[in-house]
Amino acid sequence: MKTKFIFTFFVALLFNMVEVKAQGQQGNRQLFSTDFWERRNTYIKAEVGLTTDEAGKFIPLENEFKQKIFEVGRECRSVTRESQNKQKMTDAEYLQLIDCYIDTRMREAQIEKEYFEKFKKVITPEKIHKYQEADAKFSRELVNNVRRTPTDRNNTNRPANRNNTNQSGNRR
After folding, report:
1. CA dist 89 to 72, 82, 96, 98, 164, Å?
2. pTM (global) more than 0.90
3. Quick check: 102 pLDDT over 70?
4. Using one digit for the tens of pLDDT, what is the confidence trace for 30-43?
5. Which long-range contacts (CB under 8 A, 24 or more apart) does 101-110 make?
6. What is the mean pLDDT of the chain?
């Protein structure tokens, strides 16, 4: 359960890192581009095996869920950014940062519970589980693509299986 919270918080932070200005909007910011959401939603539909009817009900609900999770973390991300700019922090500032993080995780868990109850009304528990796996997989792939340099992204000779071993074969 703790892993879910950490992952959800990480995804919210990831959304903040790659937030872009939407095309055609005057000064309003939108979470990612329309193209990103289309790619993500297509990926989720395919990985989960959603029918057209299920996708029509589930995808807007899921997008709303992701937006709420992102909004919950906004204040904490702001506090985190401020703390990174400080040379030395006081114990009170560290406690504020810790409390903010814990409060954010708790609020995210409440939202997650609320939306998973809504998800149960439109797709099966099996598909909800597949959605969780697909969402995590999509996020991992997104992070890996962000981490790689443009040269690395085009390198077709990279190893297909990365199993976290070093050259001597030992796990890191």
Report:
1. 24, 10, 11, 13, 35
2. no
3. yes
4. 556 888 889 999 99
5. 101/9, 101/76, 103/76, 104/9, 104/12, 104/72, 104/73, 104/75, 104/76, 105/5, 105/6, 105/8, 105/9, 107/72, 108/5, 108/8, 108/9, 108/12, 108/69, 108/72, 108/73, 109/5, 109/8
6. 77
